[in-house]
């Protein structure tokens, strides 16, 4: 079992068997809006960490995003297997070049 699978299992367990003082249980108790807010906050913090160029900080923030995304996934009924299956489908498309429209991102 890899780290993502372990995290998924712990999150599922916390949802099924709430434990007092658990941050994961707190998120589930507050509901989807709170979970989504945390996903957004962690994404913003990840962007800032990347911009600051601090690798250790960036790695920590990426882990925070992964954790909150996995809580969101559980709340929404999406499994790691679902995401991996889609990733496998997309991996088959690697090398298929797309034509992109030129656009002015300054406007």
Automatic annotation (TrEMBL):
Enzyme class: hydrolase
Biological process according to GO: L-histidine biosynthetic process
CDD domains noted in UniProt: NTP-PPase_HisIE_like
Main localization (coarse): cytoplasm
GO molecular function: ATP binding; phosphoribosyl-ATP diphosphatase activity
Keywords, comma-separated and alphabetical: Amino-acid biosynthesis, ATP-binding, Cytoplasm, Histidine biosynthesis, Hydrolase, Nucleotide-binding
Subcellular location: Cytoplasm
Pathway(s) where this gene product acts: Amino-acid biosynthesis; L-histidine biosynthesis; L-histidine from 5-phospho-alpha-D-ribose 1-diphosphate: step 2/9
NCBIfam families to which the protein is assigned, alphabetical: histidine_hisI (TIGR03188)
Protein name per UniProt: Phosphoribosyl-ATP pyrophosphatase
Species, as recorded: Agathobaculum faecis
Taxonomic path: Bacteria, Bacillati, Bacillota, Clostridia, Eubacteriales
This protein's encoding gene: hisE
